[in-house]
Design brief:
Layout: E1 4-7, H1 17-30, H2 37-43, H3 48-56, H4 65-77, H5 89-98, E2 102-107, H6 111-121, E3 127-132, H7 144-152, E4 161-164, H8 167-176, E5 179-183, H9 190-195, E6 200-202, H10 205-210, H11 216-223
Parallel strand pairs: 1-2, 1-4, 2-3, 4-5, 5-6
Helix pairs in contact: 1-2, 1-4
């Protein structure tokens, strides 16, 4: 039985959510769409196509999707060299690895973006794998990325946790049978995370690390 500690990246380990909001806001603005930043913020964490559909609706001109996504990607790319980890990110990953957990990232990022995120986290020595939305049929809130993460390390869903900052993360984890653990670092309210299935919520990775012995992680360890 392998315990997997699966982590979302944006807003969970790296402080990027509000950068994504601004870049999406500008991409929509350039295409002639007025989309409120608070609405974009709540959609962050969805794959690009799903985010656009969520914000513009299914009756939108879908021919614009690729250009919107490309504009967002280009704008966001200007921040790659300045991305910063959220407090305690690397220390938490290393602590879990030291306790025998297999650490896996579950993210829609790929290529240069994923490289920039991993550089910001600075814990490649304990990251056992990366499950990308590009590798599955459906991204979060579907459970597919979580299933993919488990497969990478032969993880047991009932003995694993998923740490994320959005309702999409919590829903994906719950659907996959993995314990959903929320962090507030991405800006989503505690109540929203709990209503989406979070069994525990912490301010950030540093707070989870400080409370690790009383967390869902320790509970699963005690079960054996």
């Amino acid at each position: 039985m392998t315990r997997a500690a699966i982590f979302d990246v944006d807003g969970t380990l790296v402080d990027t959510n509000h950068l994504h909001v601004i870049c999406w806001w500008e991409a929509f603005r350039q295409a002639g769409h007025e989309v409120a930043t608070h609405a974009i913020h709540r959609a962050v964490g969805l794959p690009s196509e799903d985010l656009i559909a969520h914000l513009l609706g299914e009756d939108r001109d879908k021919d614009e999707d690729a250009d919107l996504s490309s504009t967002h990607t280009a704008l966001y790319g200007t921040y790659f060299e300045r991305l910063a980890p959220i407090a305690g990110a690397a220390d938490l990953l290393r602590a879990l690895d030291g306790r025998g957990w297999r650490v896996v990232l579950a993210t829609s990022a790929g290529g240069a973006e994923l490289g920039a995120l991993r550089k910001a986290i600075d814990a490649d020595d304990v990251i056992a794998g990366v499950a990308s939305a590009d590798d599955v049929e459906s991204g979060k809130p579907a459970p597919d990325p979580v299933h993919q993460a488990l497969e990478l390390v032969d993880g047991d869903a009932g003995s694993s946790v998923f740490v994320g900052d959005t309702v999409w993360d919590m829903k994906a984890a719950a659907k996959a049978g993995v314990r959903p653990v929320g962090v507030l670092a991405g800006g989503i309210p505690r109540r929203d995370l709990e209503e989406a299935g979070a069994v525990a919520v912490y301010d950030d990775p540093a707070a989870l690390l400080a409370a690790l012995d009383d967390s869902p992680v320790a509970e699963l360890e005690r079960r054996g």
